[in-house]
Amino acid sequence: MSISPDSHAPESSLARLAPVEAVLFDVDGTLCDSDPLHYYAFREMLLEIGYNNGVPVDEEFFIKNIAGRHNDDIASILFPDWDHGKAIKFVDDKEAMFRRLVSKELKAIEGLHKLCKWVEDRGLKRAAVTNAPRPNAELMISMLGLTDFFQVVVVGSECERAKPFPDPYLKALKELKASAEHSFVFEDSASGIKAGVAAGMPVFGLTTRNPEKSLIEAGASFLIKDYEDPKLWMALEELDRVQQS
Questions:
Q1: With 70 as the cut, is the pLDDT of residue 11 above it?
Q2: Based on CB atoms within 10 Å of each CB, which residue in 3, 47, 56, 150 is the most buried?
Q3: Does residue 232 sit in helix, strand or coil?
Q4: Cα torsion 72, 42, 197, 203: sign
Q5: What is the pLDDT of residues 182-234, one digit of tens each?
Q6: Which NCBIfam families is this protein grouped with (predicted)?
């Protein structure tokens, strides 16, 4: 399947999925705009240890080296010369700081609850699939009021391989008893999009924070600004028509 991400013929991408069985969502940057909180936590903690000669890391550094990656990979990228245990401890401490920030401030992506209602109204299966640590994922899902919405929460560190490998999405499909041929994905990072595509599903790429070019190159079928984007609803309405015919 290849379709231009800004195509006005979304039915060529989603209609083939009918009857749809499942919708799978990433968490960070896909359910909520959490990257600014991650960026703040990393920037402040790296500054505390004098990283980068005491110069605060910028958003470009964050997007290139951190956003969407699994913590093991982040630890290796940030601290290649450190003992791995020490590097992981730093990242774990950062996650604790992130959870403190999340508990005070977390914003759902525009239109998220409207889309969740669309999914629920059609009785579709749904999973959250994330590279975030489980405590982070469960906290964000809870704060968004979606604990009962998701039937399955799959965490990259609990799989043999995390995103960008397909393992987390394949595990979610298995747990939902759904097939890739009748499911689709929402993601916001190149790493996550690659994972969804490798698992055999079309992926909506959200242009929350990451460069559109990287999302297209990763294989996104559509780029959408948020869950109010007309391109999304054109695709879903076409899917409804196909399923009702």
A1: no
A2: 150
A3: helix
A4: positive
A5: 999 999 999 999 999 999 999 999 998 889 999 999 999 999 999 999 999 99
A6: HAD-SF-IA-v3
Across 60-69, average pLDDT: 92
Of the residues 6, 28, 33, 72, only one is catalytic, namely: 28
Given a cut of 70, whether residue 99 has pLDDT beyond it is: yes
Q: How far apart are CA 140 and CA 199, in angstroms?
A: 25
Catalytic one of 6, 26, 35, 226: 26
CA–CA gap between residue 64 and residue 56 (Å, rounded):
15
Torsion, Cα 202 225 124 116, to 10 degrees, reads: 160
For residues 92-110, average pLDDT: 94
**CA–CA separation, 157 vs 201, rounded Å?**
21
User: Annotated catalytic, 26?
Assistant: yes
Coil, helix or strand at residue 126: strand
Cα distance between residue 87 and residue 224, in whole Å:
35
Neighbours of 241 (CB within 10 A): 12
